[in-house]
Amino acid sequence: MPIEVLLVEDSPGDVRLTQEAFRDINRSVHLHIASDGVEAMIFLRRQGVHTLAPRPDLMLLDLNLPKMDGREVLACVKGDDSLKTIPTIILTTSEAEVDIVKSYQLQANCYLNKPVQFDAFESLVRSINDFWLTKVKLPTRGKANE
């Protein structure tokens, strides 16, 4: 069964790095891309072109996004009974303490800084895969979560 991961990221370079890293690490990951916060919410709510979108097993969320930033997306997800059980990892370049604190106040499951070099980025994605997609017991997809 594929592992559904939603990547909310506006940087084409970071999208490509994430795609390449998961391709090398775990071929069962089916990576969905939302390039801004509004698109992420449309995907998660299965609206418009995303009416058949799968429920993500995990969401990787950048903070600095166009249209609706990651903090707003996180607040919407964690405030919605049908979405709040989706584990949400903040994956951002921001090292600002205010962003870290706010993310946890909004119930992010963890906060990770994006490295700039591919080897370090791949290592981080490998760690995400090893912990979140291998060791952690995630909620089962299905009627109970929808």
Kindly report the name of the CATH homologous superfamily.
Answer: Response regulator
Largest sheet: 5 strands, parallel
How many β-strand stretches?
A: 5
CATH class: Alpha Beta
Structural class: alpha/beta
- Overall average residue pLDDT: 91
In whole angstroms, the N-to-C terminal distance is 18 Å
| H/E element order | EHEHEHEHEH
Query: Number of folding domains?
Result: 1
**Order of strands across the widest beta sheet?**
2-1-3-4-5
DSSP strand content: 15-25%
Question: With helices defined by DSSP (H or I, 4 residues minimum), what is the helix count?
Answer: 5
The CATH topology, please?
Rossmann fold
Uncertain ranges: none
Q: What is the share of helical residues? A: 25-40%
What is the CATH architecture term?
Answer: 3-Layer(aba) Sandwich
